[in-house]
Design goal:
Bound molecules: L-rhamnitol, zinc ion
Number of strands: 12
Structural class: alpha/beta
Strand content: 5-15%
Order of helices and strands: HHEHEHEHEEHEEHEHEEEHEHHHHH
Amino acid sequence: MATCYEWAKQKYATIGIDTEAAINTLKNYAISMHCWQGDDVRGFDSEEELSGGIQTTGNYPGRATRPEELMADMDKALSLIGGKHKINLHACYAIFEKGGFADRDKLEPKHFERWVAYAKERGMGIDFNPTFFSHPMAASGLTLSSPDEEIRRFWIEHGKACIRISEYFANETGIPCVMNIWIPDGYKDIPADRIGPRARFAASLDEILAIPYDKSKVLICLESKVFGIGVESYTVGSAEFTMNYVAKNGLVPLMDNGHYHPTEVVSDKLSSMFLFNKNVALHVTRGVRWDSDHVVRLDDETREIAKELVASGRMNDVALALDYFDASINRIAAWVIGMRNMQRALLGALLTPHAAMKQLQNEGKFTELFVKSEELKSYPEGIVWEEFCNRCGVPADESWFAEVQQYEKTVLVNRK
Ligand code: RNT
Ligand code: ZN
């Protein structure tokens, strides 16, 4: 008797899909797992509250407060996710042991040695983010766009320090580092001057990017945003600002799907970005009514984003990262749910006969296209997913959660 997988494989073959190729592609596709889901975006460099117009809500027990805890939690999560991934760090996750504390403008590669050791032991790459929030120098809500030269200079130095650290990550791991710049700068109410802050932001970026670095090793991205909490009326790094700056300066645009008006969708924006950019970076998240950074579900938009990556043939030009932070549920489960959902969305896209569907569109056969795309939803995608998980040596169904529960009982609840 044929196994379920053999049957699924044949079923997909009838529509021209090679499930083996889909499984292998997924296995080799790295997603950047954001460390900040593990500790509610707190980091290790200060006791500052999270600022910058973003917010984590919930008080689920067991938050990691020390590097060893965060690393152990990430290991637990990664052991339940198939494939080889990257880790995504923020500058505030610097680890100060040798030589004591260094402020953000003085960060050096040595403050990330333990992260490099962690990544190397696991054969993973590291992505990086300067942290322009949760810091006294960001208390005004302005960083690289600040009219206060002392503040602006401090953050310019931070940006430069982060490029040096990113290059160090790439050199050590042998895997390019994606460094994403996002600043929280903006105003709560209607500004008197809109062009000034944007001009200062551009000048600050020019200075940061003027330091020499190897562009084949460090891919610098600029993330746009529509608004933040407390900065509802004006965001310096708007979509238009970042898109134009990126195009002019050869950076990589980063789109976070929580950063647009609620009826705008990143899935529809991607093809335009692909046409005019070699690389595109993504923060996949889930906004509920606003940029709430809920855990990624296997929902229509996540699937549609995955479809754009695969159907365009540009999957390998995309730096795919997740970006959410939920403190109301088990944080390790939050990672596993989001990562597995992103993978399932990609698998669904890899199991779709894009060429045939494109042809129907071009021939104007919209009824047939409609029928096909709806019937495809009942194809045995879940069985191919199971096969993928089995081959990766991770649980193929919800049984992974028992391991998280066990870890919660033996490790997380004992944390102070
Ligand atoms: C904020 C941006 C940014 C942050 C992380 C922590 O709205 O999405 O990417 O979430 O850098
Ligand atoms: Zn983001």
